[in-house]
Design goal:
Layout: H1 9-16, H2 38-57, H3 62-74, H4 87-103, H5 124-149, E1 159-164, E2 171-174, H6 179-189, H7 194-205, H8 215-231, E3 239-241, E4 244-246, H9 253-262, H10 269-289, E5 299-304, E6 307-309, H11 323-332
Antiparallel strand pairs: 1-2, 1-5, 3-4, 5-6
Helix pairs in contact: 2-4, 3-4, 5-7, 9-10
Length: 333
């Protein structure tokens, strides 16, 4: 099982389905917003091509259709044979058209498709950064909408800090002397699953060298979420006795956790052993070194003039911080 300081996607998907009880209908912050970029444009081109080709064969029987498609790419005597393709293009297009007719949709697309000849391909790294920027802009508007709906006006130039704890995803606000205003902002931001969504967005936009999300900090976060999922307990609240985490009533946390995983119906039996072994080793590790030896993954981001602002980096996604993305696109396309 892999631990790193960046990849939080799987953990987010996993825990978002099991650890959040708030009314999702109240969630206004969306960490993932629909994005239409270069990759989506190229996929649309491929979709249109194979949809058009499917119109030629949809009235045929399965065997007639297969034969027709095969002749399109491999029989020069066929009236619909396509000339000028490389062997690689023929194989790819034949298989893709076959798959499209059987699945009634495009499962994947590739630069080997001849429709992309002479067209600048999408750069995955650039698209990833532009997608993050798009999500940031959408979230900025979502937060601003929450504030305006509740008649909350933050003075221009006022810089706040939003902190999100990793256990309950509660947002706290720093930088305000007005305690009543602070409480009001926290109340409206913490409706639904807003805290979880903001936590996920921050984690996705942190740089790999961010002190907020080191390998050790991320490892502890995964352990905390895993233990909460199967036991409902917070390891920060437990005492260590004889090298083991012990509950208030004297039970061994490992026994509680092990039983929780073994009884979980949504975890297949094949993987239960490896999951238990991995997290038990982490429990033993933190029981020995001390759970406070590594800080919790409390994520922080600033808010100023209608925009979330990244902290301690020159590669941000906030207003006035994102010029590097345009430079990146100009260099790499």
């Amino acid at each position: 099982m892999r631990i790193d300081g960046i990849g939080i996607n799987n953990a987010y998907d996993y825990y978002s389905k099991n650890n959040i009880d708030e009314d999702a209908s109240k969630t206004k912050i969306k960490s993932r917003n629909q994005y239409y970029g270069r990759e989506e444009e190229l996929k649309r081109m491929a979709e249109e091509k194979y949809y058009r080709l499917y119109q030629e064969t949809k009235h045929m029987s399965k065997q007639e259709r297969i034969r027709y498609i095969q002749r399109r790419y491999f029989d020069p005597s066929a009236p619909h044979y396509i000339h000028g393709l490389t062997s690689q293009q023929r194989s790819y297009c034949y298989q893709t058209e076959r798959d499209y007719t059987e699945e009634r949709g495009l499962g994947s697309w590739s630069i080997y498709d001849p429709i992309f000849e002479g067209i600048r391909p999408a750069n995955g790294f650039v698209e990833s950064e532009k997608r993050k920027l798009h999500n940031r802009n959408m979230i900025n508007q979502q937060i601003q909408n929450i504030l305006e709906k509740n008649n909350i006006k933050i003075p221009l130039g006022q810089r706040l800090t939003f902190s999100v704890d990793p256990f309950n995803y509660i947002i706290t606000v720093e930088g305000l002397k007005d305690k009543k205003m602070k409480s009001l902002i926290e109340a409206v931001l913490n409706e639904g699953n807003n805290g979880r969504e903001l936590f996920y967005h921050i984690s996705q936009t942190l740089r790999a060298d961010s002190p907020q999300k080191t390998k050790d900090i991320y490892e502890k976060y995964l352990l905390m979420r895993e233990i909460k999922k199967y036991t409902g307990l917070n390891i920060n609240d437990l005492k260590v006795k004889n090298g083991k985490f012990i509950t208030e009533d004297g039970r061994d946390l490992i026994d509680i956790y092990r039983n929780g995983v073994r009884n979980a119906k949504y975890v297949d039996d094949y993987h239960k052993g490896s999951i238990i072994s991995f997290y038990v080793s982490l429990l033993n590790k933190y029981a020995e070194k001390g759970v406070n030896s590594v800080p919790d993954m409390v994520l922080k981001i600033d808010w100023q003039d209608g925009s979330l602002m990244d902290r301690d980096t020159v590669y941000g996604y906030g207003k006035g911080q994102d010029g590097w993305i345009k430079d990146l696109e100009a260099r790499l396309g």
